Amino acid sequence: MAARAGKVTQRQIAELAGVSQAVVSLVLNGKANDATRIPDRTRERVEQVIAETGYTANAAARRLAGVGNKIVGVFTYEPAFPTGAQDFYTPLLAGIEAEAEQLGCDLLMFTSAPVRDGRRRLLHGNSRLRLADGCLLLGVRMDGDELGALQAEGFPFVAVGRRDVEGVPYVGLDYVAGAATLTGRVVEAGHAHLAYLHLEQAGESIVDRMRGVERGCASAPGIRLDTREVDEHAITADLLTGLRAGGVTAVVAETAAQAARVWEVATGLGWDVPRDLSVVVLADPPRAGSRLPDFTRLRPPRTRLGAESLRLLGRILDPADELPDRERRTLLDCEVVGGRTLAAPAHPAQR
Amino acid sequence: MAARAGKVTQRQIAELAGVSQAVVSLVLNGKANDATRIPDRTRERVEQVIAETGYTANAAARRLAGVGNKIVGVFTYEPAFPTGAQDFYTPLLAGIEAEAEQLGCDLLMFTSAPVRDGRRRLLHGNSRLRLADGCLLLGVRMDGDELGALQAEGFPFVAVGRRDVEGVPYVGLDYVAGAATLTGRVVEAGHAHLAYLHLEQAGESIVDRMRGVERGCASAPGIRLDTREVDEHAITADLLTGLRAGGVTAVVAETAAQAARVWEVATGLGWDVPRDLSVVVLADPPRAGSRLPDFTRLRPPRTRLGAESLRLLGRILDPADELPDRERRTLLDCEVVGGRTLAAPAHPAQR
DNA sequence: CTGAAAGCGCTTACAG
DNA sequence: CTGAAAGCGCTTACAG
């Protein structure tokens, strides 16, 4: 980087205003008041020179001098781009950015994080992490070592999503309650044998959804639940035919992609959804899917999740805020959306 | 910000490794080579301590010491959130983030910029701008004074979108050519009287689209063009009826919102699009609109625009890259998408 | 081959 | 009321 010709510093401001550099700093930081006893006239003179020169403090220097930056880091454990993860992250980021505007802070997105052992690394040799006052951590799975290092160092951070790690502050989604409610609806509709299609059980949110589904099934006696770990590509006519032959009348899908695939395959088999098979899903549909039916589903408030996470971090960073312990970990409710893919089974099983 | 207990510095690394702090810095920056004649054994020892302690350089200090940060600022003149601007910015940001991953740089989003006189300000008292090595500027209209100040200061930046300001590097979209081609298609289809619905003429991209439409009309003799400055709310049955009564058989809309509104109003009037009225648009449809027809339209490559803009900034920042002047300002082609809202007029006007 | 030192621009006690 | 100075953690000539 070449030296910048036009760069203005506090020293220059001080010379122009005929004061010492320290006074410029005090004025700049609103500390030219009774305590420091800087006369109004001096303050005004300095302010005028600042306005004239368009001076802006060097944020790196401020930070180095130990002052908060109003910069919040945003780190994503899963690379946000190649994948369809965009539908996932976009609403989250929208919420984060909106809240950042509210808080008046800037967002440092750690897009540079190198991948090692298949995971992105937050703490690498050249990490710009310490430029931020604190950090938001996103991702289904997080590195326990890194969380520990951050905690040990006292670096303020908030996990977006519930974390099973002692002392980690988070804002999460109440998937247990949400999945239980939605599954309960399926049971209430008269289904006695459900299948749950889920992803690999990695990460708290996936475990929570599973627990919620189980709890929903337990809301009535004698409900059977088949669980299958399948990503959407593994959802075939054979699978669905098998499930139905076994007595399954309703499918609970963890992801929108799975639900979409179930619907496509079922429709391809000539089945009617929901008459022949009810399908509910624990997530919002992908944005593309105009062909897809209006699924009965859970609506996780992702935008709010983003906003609330940043708000929590803001409170943690605010020394004046005495945050009660229980507010360091909160869960947001998921709404159940009616949709059109849940109905009573055509041939109710006898319980 | 409380002092961080666990914070490791180069001095501590130096003590542990039994070398001076300067040597740690040299090792860290890959300058422990023949030129500095630091023995391999010393380097290895330092490297090991670094690995053990999980040391990470303080980016603020590095920056202050004059070293590049691999941080690129992203500033948006229009607030990105309250509005429907999200559809606009999302693909752009997707491209920027993808390229940032490629380049290994982080992105500092200036979400804090205060609004003054209805515009967001990049250069305000507390701007974190100088933390970045360079900056990407987004927005339909930009502040000329700020562009000037940035140039005067030699702060590297790239405008996303064509700019009519001397010396400002940009990557833009070739709206002139794109709009001319699409409008030419309308003319080729037999329309002799078109209406162009556009926004207030502020900003180069809006001017360019207008010029392109005019050029497209000039591709055949005797074509009439009515232009109307209307945002979508001002598109009423009266307006369309008036246009059609005047002989207009095709509408070119600047924005997707306008096109959607034209289609809704026309349909409400019992008209068939495109039989009774052809509608083409110079932008991509909003993501929500599953009800809307498949518009004949221009597809501005926004994701690529984002990526190419950052790539250009990366080249400007790279001292080894001798960027030819003409590559400092480039335009990307817009694709024409066939769609189903352009047809020959039912009653071709006689020319 | 290695260490001592200046300097980046700022904030904040501290001494007049 | 104001200035001189230490210190934040780093990079990079420079002197041994």
How would you describe this structure to a colleague?
Chains A, B: Keywords: DNA-binding, Repressor, Transcription, Transcription regulation. Chains A, B: This is LacI family DNA-binding transcriptional regulator. Chains A, B: GO terms for molecular function: DNA binding. Chains A, B: Pfam families: LacI (PF00356), Peripla_BP_3 (PF13377). The structure is a homodimer of 351-residue chains. By secondary structure, chain A is of the alpha/beta class. Chain A has helices at 10-17, 21-28, 40-53, 59-64, 85-103, 144-153, 175-188, 204-217, 237-245, 256-268, 302-317, and strands at residues 71-76, 106-109, 115-116, 119-120, 134-138, 157-160, 170-173, 193-198, 224-229, 250-253, 278-281, 296-299, 329-332, 335-337. Chain A has three domains: 10-57, 434 Repressor (Amino-terminal Domain); 71-173 and 304-335, Rossmann fold, CATH 3.40.50.2300; 175-299, Rossmann fold. In chain A, the strands form three sheets. In chain A, strands 2-1-5-6-7-13 form a six-stranded parallel beta sheet, with helices on one face. The model of chain A is unreliable at 1-5 (pLDDT under 50). Chain A binds a DNA duplex (16 and 16 nucleotides) through helix 2 and helix 4.
Q: What name does CATH use for the topology of the largest domain in chain A?
A: Rossmann fold
Largest sheet of chain A: 6 strands, parallel
CATH architecture of the largest domain in chain A: 3-Layer(aba) Sandwich
CATH class of the largest domain in chain A: Alpha Beta
Oligomer: homodimer
Structural class label of chain A: alpha/beta
Helix count of chain A equals 11
Element order of chain A: H for helix, E for strand: HHHHEHEEEEHEEHEHEHEHEEHEE
Beta strand % of chain A: 15-25%
Rounded to the nearest angstrom, the distance between the terminal CA atoms of chain A is: 75 Å
Overall form of chain A: elongated
Portion of residues in helices of chain A? 25-40%
Q: Averaged pLDDT of chain A, please?
A: 86
Q: Any low-confidence stretches of chain A, pLDDT <50, length ≥5?
A: 1-5
Query: Strands of the largest sheet of chain A, in order across it?
Result: 2-1-5-6-7-13
Number of domains in the coordinates of chain A? 3
Going by CATH, the homologous superfamily of the largest domain in chain A would be: Response regulator
Protein name (chains A, B): LacI family DNA-binding transcriptional regulator
Keywords (chains A, B): DNA-binding, Repressor, Transcription, Transcription regulation
Organism (chains A, B): Pseudonocardia nematodicida
GO molecular function (chains A, B): DNA binding
